[in-house]
Amino acid sequence: MSILNGQVSLQNLVSMEWLTNEEVLGLITRGSDFKNNRATFTPQRQYFAANLFFESSTRTHKSFEVAEMKLGLDLVDFDAKTSSVNKGETLYDTVLTMSALGTDVCVIRHPDVDYYKELVESDSIRCAIVNGGDGSGQHPSQSLLDLMTIYEEFGYFEGLKIAICGDLTHSRVAKSNMEILKRLGATLYFTGPAEWYSSEFDVYGRHVAIDDVITELDVVMLLRVQHERHDGETSFSKEAYNSQFGLTQARYDLLKDNAIVMHPAPVNRDVEIDDHLVEAPKSRIVAQMTNGVFVRMAIIEAVLQGRA
């Protein structure tokens, strides 16, 4: 990994932990340049990208598609439901096939944590691997768009007070963001049910009641309750969760004037956040989705450069 002439060059992008602070800032700056028409990308040849999504996705999947098309890449169609996965083909063999066909970038979402390790360690797989989410592990492109959104608002990270709220142990967004935000100098708080908090978070911040910090926060980073990862072991009413842990109108009114509200979406309305607050003045949920396209353009450009 390196930065050349102000542009980040990567072999793969699979985890925020693999990026330096300089590379992180380089990617979000490049994303901002794409967004504000200060940067262009001219393909040196025909490039191909495949989006291999083995879990449901709207924002991440379609955001990568739009980013790839904006950069002039050709898309290799892939649908797990109609692929040889149904015949028992492994992820490794699927990616090996894509690589052999000449695909330059594979963006992958898969339920297995760390699925990418055997792919990036393989000498036979020549395409760049971009992690679109691995189980409850990492979600680097979401983290980068979150950082871009925060940086757009404040222009810095050092000293910002940020609460990551909700379904912590099941969230790859929380795990990607907590490490890099701590590294960039933010002060972190974790809120939500105690049973969804684990000691692994202690290194990065502390678990508090949302009402104890709400007036101090610069950023409220809400997380979706991930019912699909609970395996039926958790039962609660949406009203009770919203009242105790969610962003209600009363809590919203206590936020500082320049504080912002974020959520990776999809939003469980009236659970993590009151329905009418999703597009409230302090909300940046829609801005996050917009920024996702441009930071993913920066990611794709970086791995194409790294593989040039």
TrEMBL record:
- Superkingdom of the organism of origin: Bacteria
Start and end residues of each Aspartate/ornithine carbamoyltransferase carbamoyl-P binding domain: 12-152
Q: Name one GO cellular component term.
A: cytosol
Record has Ion transport as a keyword: no
EC number, UniProt record: 2.1.3.2
Instruction: Give a Pfam family name.
Output: OTCace
Q: Which UniProt keywords apply?
A: Pyrimidine biosynthesis, Transferase
Give me the segments passing through the membrane.
none
One BP term from GO:
amino acid metabolic process
How does the record describe its quaternary structure?
Heterododecamer (2C3:3R2) of six catalytic PyrB chains organized as two trimers (C3), and six regulatory PyrI chains organized as three dimers (R2).
HAMAP family found in the cross-reference section:
Asp_carb_tr (MF_00001)
Q: Please give the name of this protein.
A: Aspartate carbamoyltransferase
What organism is listed for this UniProt entry? Streptococcus merionis
What lineage, starting at the top, does this entry show? Bacteria, Bacillati, Bacillota, Bacilli, Lactobacillales
